[in-house]
Design brief:
The chain is α/β, with parallel strands linked by helices. It has 14 helices and 21 strands. It is globular and about 70 Å long.
């Protein structure tokens, strides 16, 4: 028997992700379901899943474990992660599990776990204990005493999305919507019937074989279909989502990809008009544009460690109106402080309609004022050594060093953040400057030479 302090390799800082079946299989999924009920307390839980080929078996196993613990389980089937959040919160359940690996490779799967009010269960708030107990727990000898009911929650979820946005302010825009064969297609179809827009769907059917590649528009190679469709159809905006649609990505009317960083400031400004003086949570990777826009809008910027569990915990602590990460996670106080891949574009469409400006014009000035590299990933044998080399080179000349998440150095006219991923074995670099794109590019190249060396 393993030591009780051990945990499965698939248990990460704020969720579960691992290879199938070597790191995560049906047996472990059953144990996770069983232990989650025991650890979180209560009896009423929701389980949902994405469209990965292994997700059905894993979700059934999770439900089996919950039933063995005596739980009453609401099975909502194929859905987005935020639909598990919404069901947990709206139905006042004791917790929920979403079976998803989001944008991880084909041979991976995972889970996101929440407790009451859709509060995240992360490594330092109970996830590690669930993992440790799952390895050693004794399985019940008696037959399962719980119950399960299959429920379609789409109508209630769509109503909440519309109630929390301003669909009446949205004009007749033309929208390319690329679901990437993930789970966004059905939700988009349901929302579209309530909007005066023309939707041009791409890869709308959920398909766990991902015939057009893993849905992760953060990767430049995954953007071509959306960009081409925007130009072909003369659309006003292009939208794309990852597999479980908790991240939303934007393309302007020219088919140009808009870095998520600039959407954080735009959404913060829009929400601060409705909530003057509110607090806005942001991550430490790219900060200057967000801080300036929040302060100009009369809000209070607050920096948090990167990651959905950490952002949500900080939002609750600060009672923040909105939180945004440059990786395209957007969090809303009125949505139980959770991230949504649907609310961002509903707010942005309303902002485009309100101002009469195309998306390119809404972000052009900010992009010029604070040009950014976008996130650059490197797989390294010795990421800690690379971090030490970078700090040794730039730390002595930095006007400020921050370690909220990784290493952030303010070099005056430019700054960077270098951090290890919590979900993948990579080092992530972000660089920005004060209005000098050439300087930003030069320093990015200089940093990468040291990292790669």
């Amino acid at each position: 028997m393993r030591e009780p302090s051990a945990k499965p390799a698939c248990f990460k800082a704020y969720d579960i992700r691992g290879r199938i079946p070597s790191e995560l299989d049906a047996d472990l999924a059953f144990r996770i379901g069983l232990t989650s009920v025991r650890r979180l307390g209560g009896r009423r839980f929701v389980v949902g899943r994405d469209c990965r080929l292994s997700s059905g078996e894993l979700a059934d196993a999770v439900i089996g474990g919950m039933l063995a613990a005596g739980a009453e389980v609401m099975d909502i089937g194929l859905c987005g992660t935020e639909m598990v959040y919404h069901s947990t919160w709206a139905h006042e359940l004791d917790g929920g599990i979403m079976v998803t690996a989001s944008h991880n490779p084909m041979d991976h799967n995972g889970m996101k776990i929440v407790r009451t009010e859709a509060r995240p269960v992360s490594g330092d708030s109970g996830l590690d204990e669930i993992g440790a107990e799952a390895l050693v727990c004794e399985l019940p000898a008696a037959p399962a005493s719980g119950t399960v009911v299959r429920r379609d929650v789409m109508d209630g979820y769509v109503k909440t999305m519309l109630d929390l946005s301003a669909p009446q302010d949205i004009g007749p825009l033309k929208i390319v919507a690329n679901a990437g064969n993930g789970c966004a297609g059905p939700a988009l179809k349901a929302l579209a019937t309530h909007l005066p827009c023309e939707f041009i769907p791409l890869h709308a059917e959920p398909d766990g074989t991902f015939p057009h590649g893993i849905p992760n528009p953060l990767l430049p190679e995954n953007r071509a279909d959306t960009a081409a469709a925007v130009r072909e159809h003369g659309a006003d905006v292009g939208l794309a989502w990852d597999g479980d649609f908790d991240r939303c990505f934007f393309f302007d009317e020219r088919g140009e990809f808009i870095e998520g960083y600039y959407l954080v400031g735009l959404l913060a400004s829009a929400l601060l008009r409705k909530h003057p003086g509110g607090k806005i949570i942001h991550d430490p990777r790219l900060v200057w544009n967000t801080v300036e826009m929040v302060e100009q809008a009369g809000g209070v910027p607050v920096m948090s460690k990167t990651g959905h569990a950490f952002i949500k915990e900080r939002m609750r602590k600060e009672d923040a109106v909105y939180g945004g990460e440059m990786s395209a996670h957007h969090y809303f106080r009125e949505f139980a402080y959770c991230d949504s891949g649907m609310l961002p574009w509903l707010h942005v469409l309303a902002e485009m309609s309100r101002t009469g400006k195309p998306l390119s014009e809404l972000v052009a000035e900010r992009m010029a004022r604070f040009p950014a590299s976008g996130e650059i990933n490197r797989r390294l044998v010795d990421p800690d050594g690379a971090l030490e080399a970078i700090e040794s080179r730039y730390g002595p000349d930095a006007s400020g060093i921050d370690r909220t998440d990784g290493l952030s150095c303010d070099m005056g006219e430019w700054r960077f953040n270098l951090r290890k991923s919590n979900t993948e074995p990579v080092l992530r670099l972000n660089v920005e400057s004060r209005g000098d794109a050439d300087l930003m590019r030069a320093m990015t190249d200089e940093l990468l030479k040291i990292i790669d060396g």
